[in-house]
């Protein structure tokens, strides 16, 4: 377990150690019952005082995340601990670490030092859910809504026309013909890219990873809007950069707080999802977008703009082009690196996206891409060329939005009718996320076991915070369940939350 200590910050060392261990516990990298280093070992490893190590463990114990057993050591707390009100109602009160555990032949692996800071997105993934759970967590479109016939014809045409691509590798930046159809698609959204600005990625997550690998390292400062996409936090933590959370308001990331931060530290990069933000669904105003680009230019800062949801506009008419333009369209100096994924409105299983940049920023990202995977699959790119060329693609997106509008209205109707007014939420204007805020004293994490018992799953808001989490939020997605299951899941959710507040 490697913990980066920043000795030049105002954050006390005990808080830094506490937060680093807490993130590993919350994301499942440290399992219940796992023994932690002794306070002396922790002090030696972190080059901190024995008193600081004791204080850090005491804070974790107060949080209910660890348990200290006299004569045995400090252990990751069992989910049956005192801070889990639902399970504790029917449990015998025993904690996992109090029991004599059988010898594990893999215990020696705990001596291997790793550099994983957290993996909250991994720990909450749907593949780990019990069978039969109604999934309100996964951000994807249900397969019944996808243009399968259009994809099928595209694949068949590609097999006829591009069969030789199965025996070839793609250029590192992507297939030129595929990049051309993507450029045409993006230009239709008022994004005037050219092929020499684009690199094909295996989804936007790889784009985030490439940016972090290329431009962020120990000592660099990344300012990121908070709450933020959990997968981005995991990737940025991996770079061991210093992440500075910047809160949002109704217009987007707070420029005044960025300005204040810039007087104290040198900000190297900013991460934002300005359009239908994940997890809140907010849309950054045009004025704020212009302010952000101007701030980056004045302070020599890179912006990583992540925009996977622009197509998903929840309106009875197609108003996609009335959204504020992407930050990249306002960028005249190459400060903005733009990420575009196709998973959210097309096929999650295909995992393709693009990253757009200019100048040497582009060439350095391309070098990182060549190191990471030698280029994305060629035939998959070829298979999507007829798809993106097809005249029915625009019609599909328009029809999909009409279906999602109906679903959004269903969700809003259910919550208005059944959910306690103590739970706050706002109907989104696009995207696929709904952010709910509970009373401050209530933790959404503590509701997960009971939610699974009742047959639903959602994402606790704590995983969307790069620093100390706010636990009284949760995120649901209402796009990936069958029509018959969505009302059932919402009824269960309302009943659970009403009984908890």
Describe the structure.
Helix 6 crosses helix 14 (378-389) and helix 7 (176-187) runs parallel beside helix 14 (378-389). The strands form four sheets. Strands 4-11-10-9-8-5-6-7 form an eight-stranded mixed β-sheet, sandwiched between helices. Strands 12-13-16-15 form a four-stranded antiparallel β-sheet, with no helix packed on it. Strands 1-2 form a two-stranded antiparallel ribbon. The longest helix is centred in the last third of the chain and has 27 residues, at 392-418. The chain is globular. The protein has 501 residues and is α/β, with parallel strands linked by helices. The model is unreliable at 81-99 (pLDDT under 50). The protein has helices at residues 13-26, 39-46, 50-62, 85-90, 120-123, 148-161, 176-187, 203-215, 230-238, 255-262, 286-299, 327-330, 359-373, 378-389, 392-418, 448-454, 485-500; strands spanning 66-69, 73-76, 134-135, 198-201, 221-226, 242-249, 252-253, 269-272, 302-306, 336-341, 353-356, 424-425, 433-437, 456-457, 459-460, 473-477. It has three domains: 13-106, Arc Repressor Mutant, subunit A; 134-145 and 395-500, Alpha-Beta Complex (Aspartate Aminotransferase, domain 1); 148-391, Aspartate Aminotransferase, domain 2 (3-Layer(aba) Sandwich), CATH 3.40.640.
Short structural summary:
The protein is α/β, with parallel strands linked by helices. It has helices at residues 13-26, 39-46, 50-62, 85-90, 120-123, 148-161, 176-187, 203-215, 230-238, 255-262, 286-299, 327-330, 359-373, 378-389, 392-418, 448-454, 485-500, and strands at 66-69, 73-76, 134-135, 198-201, 221-226, 242-249, 252-253, 269-272, 302-306, 336-341, 353-356, 424-425, 433-437, 456-457, 459-460, 473-477.
């Amino acid at each position: 377990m490697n913990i980066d200590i920043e000795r030049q910050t105002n954050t006390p060392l005990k808080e830094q150690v506490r937060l680093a261990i807490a993130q590993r516990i919350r994301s499942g990298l440290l399992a219940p019952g796992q023994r932690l280093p002794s306070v002396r070992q922790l002090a030696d490893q972190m080059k901190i005082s024995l008193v600081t190590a004791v204080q850090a463990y005491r804070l974790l114990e107060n949080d209910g995340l660890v348990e200290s057993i006299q004569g045995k050591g400090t252990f990751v707390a069992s989910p049956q601990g005192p801070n889990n009100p639902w399970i504790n109602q029917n449990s015998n009160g025993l904690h996992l670490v109090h029991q004599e555990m059988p010898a594990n032949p893999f215990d020696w692996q705990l001596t291997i030092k790793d550099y994983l800071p957290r993996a909250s997105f991994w720990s909450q993934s749907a593949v780990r859910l019990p069978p039969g759970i109604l999934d309100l967590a996964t951000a994807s479109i249900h397969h019944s809504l996808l243009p399968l016939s259009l994809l099928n014809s595209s694949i068949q045409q590609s097999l006829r026309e591009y069969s030789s691509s199965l025996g070839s590798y793609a250029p590192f930046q992507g297939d030129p013909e595929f990049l051309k159809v993507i450029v045409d698609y993006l230009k239709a959204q008022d994004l005037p890219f050219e092929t020499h600005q684009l690199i094909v990625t295996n989804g936007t997550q790889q784009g985030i990873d490439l940016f972090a690998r290329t431009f962020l390292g120990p000592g660099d400062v990344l300012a990121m809007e908070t709450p933020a996409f959990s997968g981005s936090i995991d990737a940025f933590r991996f770079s061991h950069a210093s992440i500075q959370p910047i809160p949002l308001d109704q217009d987007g990331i707070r420029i005044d707080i960025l300005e204040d931060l810039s007087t104290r530290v040198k900000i190297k990069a900013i991460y934002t999802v300005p359009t239908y933000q994940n997890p809140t669904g907010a849309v950054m105003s045009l004025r704020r977008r212009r302010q952000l680009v101007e701030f980056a230019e004045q302070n020599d800062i890179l912006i990583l703009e992540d925009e996977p949801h622009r197509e998903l506009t929840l309106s009875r008419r197609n108003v996609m082009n009335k959204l504020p333009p992407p930050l990249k369209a306002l960028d005249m100096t190459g400060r903005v690196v733009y990420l575009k994924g196709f998973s959210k409105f097309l096929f999650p299983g295909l995992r393709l996206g693009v990253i757009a940049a200019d100048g040497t920023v582009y060439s350095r990202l391309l070098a990182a891409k060549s190191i990471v995977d030698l280029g994305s699959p060629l035939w998959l790119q070829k298979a999507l060329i007829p798809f993106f060329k097809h005249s029915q693609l625009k019609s599909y997106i328009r029809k999909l939005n009409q279906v999602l509008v109906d679903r959004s209205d269903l969700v809003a109707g259910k919550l208005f009718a059944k959910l306690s007014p103590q739970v706050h939420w706002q109907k989104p204007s696009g995207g696929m996320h709904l952010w709910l805020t509970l009373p401050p004293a209530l933790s959404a994490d503590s509701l997960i076991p009971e939610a699974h018992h009742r047959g639903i799953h959602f994402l606790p808001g704590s995983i969307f915070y790069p620093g100390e989490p706010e636990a009284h939020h949760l995120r649901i997605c209402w796009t990936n369940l069958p029509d018959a299951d969505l009302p059932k899941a919402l009824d269960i959710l309302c009943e659970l939350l009403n009984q908890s507040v």
